[in-house]
Design brief:
Strand content: under 5%
CATH topology of the largest domain: Tetracycline Repressor, domain 2
Order of helices and strands: HHHHHHHHHHH
Helix content: over 70%
CATH superfamily of the largest domain: Tetracycline Repressor, domain 2
Structural class: mainly alpha
Shape: globular
Oligomer: single chain
CATH architecture of the largest domain: Orthogonal Bundle
Low-confidence stretches: none
Number of helices: 11
Length: 211
């Protein structure tokens, strides 16, 4: 959300969003400095000068606040999916790819990209974040499948193809994120390029044969 969109919101909603962003900023800074387990919830709340009650009105856990940058991306993906117009004859995977790229374009620039990088590094050394991420991916994939079947009249029942298309998108994103995080000067635009490249590689990956 850009500054113009933020200013259009009621004061109460603006305050909530600013508190949320302050918690994310402080959490990623403190977790990076001291380690995820080295920062108590009390210390995080004190740094932002909010109560635990306020924290839990905003996030469900320390893992949620640490993973907020990528969770925000996938929330935007689900929102974009609700607005995507059906296009007869288009491959579903292409629609999903373009929807994710559209969500990426909504993310607030390089500050967000830096936070994604910090969150990624934390998850690599924090088992509870890794497990939390797997559960989040599954919930998001299920939500996307419900939306697809409701809006695009996709086959239901035992047809595995729609869910597999979503799973392939998620896998391509993770591979893109992995390579992006190790690149020099990662940006939001370079992450979008990495996602596009990873998605483009999916069809070929299914055709790889063994020597």
């Amino acid at each position: 959300m850009d500054v113009t969109d933020l200013e259009r919101l009621p004061l109460r909603e603006r305050k909530k969003l600013r508190t949320r962003q302050a918690l994310v900023d402080a959490a990623l800074e403190l977790f990076t400095e001291r380690g995820f387990d080295g920062v108590t919830l009390d210390a995080l709340c004190d740094a932002v000068e909010v109560s635990k009650r306020t924290f839990f009105r905003t996030f469900g856990s320390k893992e949620d606040v640490a993973m907020a940058p990528t969770q925000d991306l996938w929330a935007a993906f689900l929102d974009e999916l609700e607005k995507t117009e059906p296009a007869a004859g288009r491959p579903l995977f292409e629609v999903l790819r373009d929807t994710l790229l559209g969500a990426l374009a909504r993310m607030p620039g390089e500050g967000w990209a830096h936070q994604v990088l910090l969150s990624r590094r934390l998850a690599a050394v924090t088992p509870s974040m890794d497990a939390h991420g797997l559960a989040f991916c599954d919930r998001t994939s299920r939500a996307a499948l419900v939306t697809l079947r409701r809006r695009f009249a996709l086959p239901g029942g035992g047809d595995l193809r729609p869910r597999l298309a979503i799973d392939l998108l998620v896998a391509a994103f993770h591979r893109a994120l992995e390579g992006w995080a190790g690149s020099p000067g990662p940006t939001r635009d370079s992450l979008a390029a990495a996602v596009r490249d990873a998605c483009d590689a999916v069809p070929g990956s299914l055709a790889v044969t063994l020597a």
